């Protein structure tokens, strides 16, 4: 003990304790998900704890989602494939990800691949050699935009209390048991509250909101450009006598 009555290193120990307490007090974000869904998950968890674990494979869509998403953490109908320490999504999949994975993506890749193989990269094609440097970047940007829409946070909102909602014109939402800001809406398929929710797009597999609206608009433009460009390329090749 020093002359002033303080234990050596006491201040450092206090600061360390405070920082440890602050870190331990941090919790993952509590998103405004469906109250009914939360109740179902709690009942399932209680059954598992009691030892009445259900069969591993019951051939339901829930088992299919869980298997293909490698047991990713669920946020309503969304799947957290990669997240930060505080629970913020980095890579997230929507409820309609099978449609996007097995319909949208193959349509873009297969059809564009056929056009590329038989027309764009064909040495006997009437197209100039430099056209590939236009076609493939457009294809790449289309796929990149699709990934940004499908795997980006659409704008998931956290559950707030009366004090946090304040007097900003927030409204009570019965489905999630929390207040919602103006413009936010509850998505039945995503089972979560989304900021500036617009619609659920099965082609991209997820809900469209504030977080991925820009990427969605870019994807719509790029997929139309790619579609019309591919049709134009095939039509030009046929009219030029290439078959």
**Protein structure class:** alpha+beta
The string of secondary-structure elements, in order, is HHHEEEHHHEEEEEEH
Largest sheet: 3 strands, antiparallel
Helix content: 40-55%
Uncertain parts:
1-10, 12-25
Question: Mean pLDDT across all residues, rounded?
Answer: 82
| Cα separation of the termini | 94 Å
How large a portion of the residues is in β-strands, by DSSP E? 5-15%
Q: What spatial order of strands do you see in the largest sheet?
A: 1-2-3
What is the general shape? elongated
Treating each run of at least 4 consecutive H or I residues as one helix, how many helices? 7
Q: What is the CA-based Rg, rounded?
A: 26 Å
Walk me through the structure.
This protein is an alpha+beta fold. The protein has a domain at 97-152 and 213-239. 47% of the residues lie in helices and 13% in strands. The protein has helices spanning 10-25, 35-49, 61-68, 97-120, 132-150, 162-165, 213-239; strands at 73-75, 78-83, 89-93, 171-173, 178-180, 185-187, 192-194, 199-201, 206-208. α4 packs parallel to α7 (213-239). It starts with 9 loop residues before the first helix and ends with a helix. Mean pLDDT is 82; it is low at 1-10 and 12-25. This is Palmitoyltransferase. Its EC number is 2.3.1.225. Pfam families: DHHC (PF01529). Residues 178-236 form the Palmitoyltransferase DHHC domain.
């Amino acid at each position: 003990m020093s002359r002033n009555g303080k234990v050596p290193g006491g201040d450092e120990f206090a600061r360390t304790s405070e920082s440890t307490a602050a870190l331990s007090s941090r919790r993952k974000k509590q998103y405004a998900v469906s109250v009914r869904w939360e109740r179902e998950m709690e009942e399932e968890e209680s059954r598992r704890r009691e030892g009445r674990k259900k069969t591993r494979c019951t051939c339901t869509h829930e088992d299919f989602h869980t298997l293909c998403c490698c047991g990713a953490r669920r946020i309503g109908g969304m799947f957290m494939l990669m997240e930060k320490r505080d629970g913020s999504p980095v890579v997230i999949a929507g409820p309609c990800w099978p449609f996007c994975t097995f319909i949208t993506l193959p349509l873009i890749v297969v059809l564009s691949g056929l056009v590329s193989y038989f027309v764009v990269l064909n040495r006997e094609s009437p197209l100039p050699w430099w056209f590939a440097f236009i076609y493939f970047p457009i294809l790449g940007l289309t796929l990149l935009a699709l990934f940004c829409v499908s795997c980006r946070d659409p704008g998931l909102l956290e559950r707030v209390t009366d004090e946090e909602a304040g007097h900003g014109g927030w409204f009570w939402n019965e489905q999630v048991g929390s207040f919602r800001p103006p413009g936010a809406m509850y998505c039945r398929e995503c089972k979560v509250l989304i900021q500036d929710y617009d619609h659920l797009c099965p082609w991209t597999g997820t809900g469209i909101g504030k977080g991925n609206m820009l990427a969605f608009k870019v994807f719509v433009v790029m997929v139309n450009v790619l579609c019309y460009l591919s049709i134009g390329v095939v039509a030009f090749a046929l009219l030029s006598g290439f078959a």
